Structure formats: structure tokens, C-alpha cells
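Record type: ASSEMBLY
Status: queued
Input:
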Amino acid sequence: MKRQVPLVLCFLFGVGIILTRFSPHPYSQFFYEEVNSWVLIITPFALVLATVTLIRAHVTRIRRRTEYWQYSFIVFAGIITMVVIGVPYGPQHFVFEWLFNNIQVPMDATMFSLLAFFIASAAYRAFRARSFEATLLLVTAIIVMLGNVPVGDLIWSETSSVKQWILNNPNLSARRGIILGVSLGVISQSIRIILGIERSYLGGGD
Amino acid sequence: MEIFGIWLAAFLTLSIYSFLYRDNPFYRFAEYLFIGISVGYYIVIYIHQGFIPFAWEPFWAAVKPFWPGIPREAGWIGLIKLIPIALGLLFFGGLSPRHTWLIRYPSAVLVGFGSGISIPLMLQTFIFEQTRGTVEPFAAINAGTLSPWGIIEAVLMLIGVACTLTYFFFSVEHRGPVKWLSKVGIAFLMIGFGAAFGNTVMGRVALLIQRVDFLLNDWIGMIIGWLGTIF
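Status: finished
Output:
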């Protein structure tokens, strides 16, 4: 009951959806659209659970007085502020938009830009041309970086053309190889899930 | 309000950059605030763009015909929407350790749907289309419409794809010709990773330039403008 029914459900929905993709019959399309709407209905409930789990984790931090537990109040303040304004008045409310534009957007951009500094230190370690493969990575990265900025064409007028050729040819062939490999992996994993061979999504326990 | 917004954004930007020196209370404040604001933002977006249109409205449409005083327009067929709503509610079983297993039911539907949809999607979008893109130039070679440089590019593409796949093919031992093919594959992969790295660095640097531009022009520019009006 606890494991068999979910396995049967997974099999039925998986096989059903595959069949709808190969049949243009109106019943088949109705089934596909109905199940698609079911997925859209079920998914938001998962977010509620995720939010509750996050809140519980921070409540536990506060209760146990773990390191930096005081900052958990800031998490709650952020959540409550956005929810109190956004839920009743909607995301188009001017205060909600002000908070989004002046807190979330700048912090999001700054957090990602912070990575530029760490990438620089990672590049120092990665770009030491100690082997043929590392040299290829180094040369390609330098050409792509220079080809993206005007100074690259000032150094050599063909830099951006060479960058584009690299992106369209050897880079694309490597990406195609990866995409084909990943796709074959996804298909085999999906078949394993539908047939009940792969059961990790059921979690532990009985 | 706009001036306060610029000061707040500048304070938070500098608080995050202070991490470059070392971990400190300003960075931690900004980090936790970022988590809270982001979670709050996505809760609001999911409620208004996910929960209300896809869960609440179908639920209301399903039960409305049975509400006293309201004519039964939709009939019984609308009640089918109560099944996914009931399945979604089973996610709350995760809040009680004894009922965590209930999550398996909605998870099974989502995983089954995802697996079922991904098989034809992957076949059509990636395997067929990417293979077609790789071998299609050879039709042009056969027709005699491809330039010599185009022929070199088409052959290079085919060699790159085949060798990259060989590198990921672990069913045979990488010895002899297979080893050399996989070595060529590694070379193509390194070019791909180098290009990805270069593009990522440039993307992050563009964000850094944008934040520095904000601090210099919007924030310090505003302060200088102020000082100019005072003195």
C-alpha cells in the first residue's frame, strides 16, 4: 500500500503520457491536457511544504541557539514583509515592486557578480597550462573572453570572428556530444523509473 | 522613496561585497535578508500565479455547482479536479513523521508524468534534432552546394560529436583506437568547457560592472549632486 500504489501510479501516468504523444486521438489529447492540468494543480502544494520546512528549520535554529541563530529572525522578517504585502494586494502592488526592485534585484545581481572574484581565483588555478588539455581550455577561454569585448578586436581584428567560429564548431560539437549522452541517460533513467526499477523518489522506510 | 531605495540598495550591495574581505555581520545580515526576501517573493508569485489559478479556481469551479443557491452548470465532471487537489494536500503528510509516506502519492504522479513526457521530448528535441543537425551538411556535400571550408567544418563537427560520445561510452575498455578517439573527444570537451568558462566569466564581470556603475553613478553621483546644491 505504501510503496506498491505509488509504483503503480507512476507506471500508469508514465505509460499513459508516452502513449498520448504517439496518438492524435481526441481522447488521448484530452487525457494529456487533463493530466497536465493535474500536475499544475499538484506542484504549488509542494512549494507550501518547502516553505514550511524552511520555516521549521529556522525555528529549530532559534530554539537550539545554534551559531548565528539571531539571523534567522531576519529571514522571517523578509518572508513576512513580502507575504503581508504581496498576498493580499498582489505582486503588482507598488510597495511589493519597490521591495523587489530595491532589495531583491540589487542583492541578486551583487551575489552573482561576487562570483567574478571567485572565478578569477579559480581561473588562476585552472589556467596553469601544465598539459595539452589545460592549454586548450586556457586558449579557448582567453579567445572567448577577448572576443566578447571591443578590446579583443583592437588587439587583433579577427578575434570576434575566431571566437564565433569556436562557438559554432568545436564548442557546438562537444555540446552536441554531451546533449546526446545526457538525453540517452534521461531516457534510460525514465524507463527505469516507469518500470519501477529506480525507486529512489519513494525515499526510505517501508 | 526613490532616494531611500538607492541608499538601501547601495548599503546591501556594499554589505555583500564586504565578504571579499572576510565573513562579517554586514554580509550575514544581507545574506539572510536575501534568503527571506527571495522566499517571500516566490511565495507571493506562486500563490498568485500558481496556487490561485491552478488549485483554488479549479477547486471553486468544482464545488460551486453544489453550493446552496447556485445553479448546477458544470455538473459532476468538474469534481474530477478534486483528485489532484487531494493529491496535492497529501504533501502535508511530510509535516508529520508518521505520515511522511503520503508524499509518495503526489510524488509518484509528478515523477511518472515527468518521466513519461521526457522520453518522447528527449527523443524528438535532442536526439533526432541534434543528429539531424550533425549529418545534414553531408546532404549539401552530396548535392555539391557546400564550400570546401563548409566541408571541413561538417567533417570536424561529425568527428567532434563521435569522439565526445566515445569518451562517455564506458561499455568498452578505452584501449587502442577507442583510447585515441576518446582523447580527441577530451580535446573537444576542453574547448567546450573553455568557451563555457569564458562566457560565464564575461557574464559575471558584466554584472560586476553594472553594480559598480550603480554605486558610482546612481549612489555617489546622487551624493555629489546633493553636495553641489548645498555648497
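Annotation: Chain B has three domains: 1-88, 96-136, 147-231.
Annotation: Chain B has a mean pLDDT of 90.
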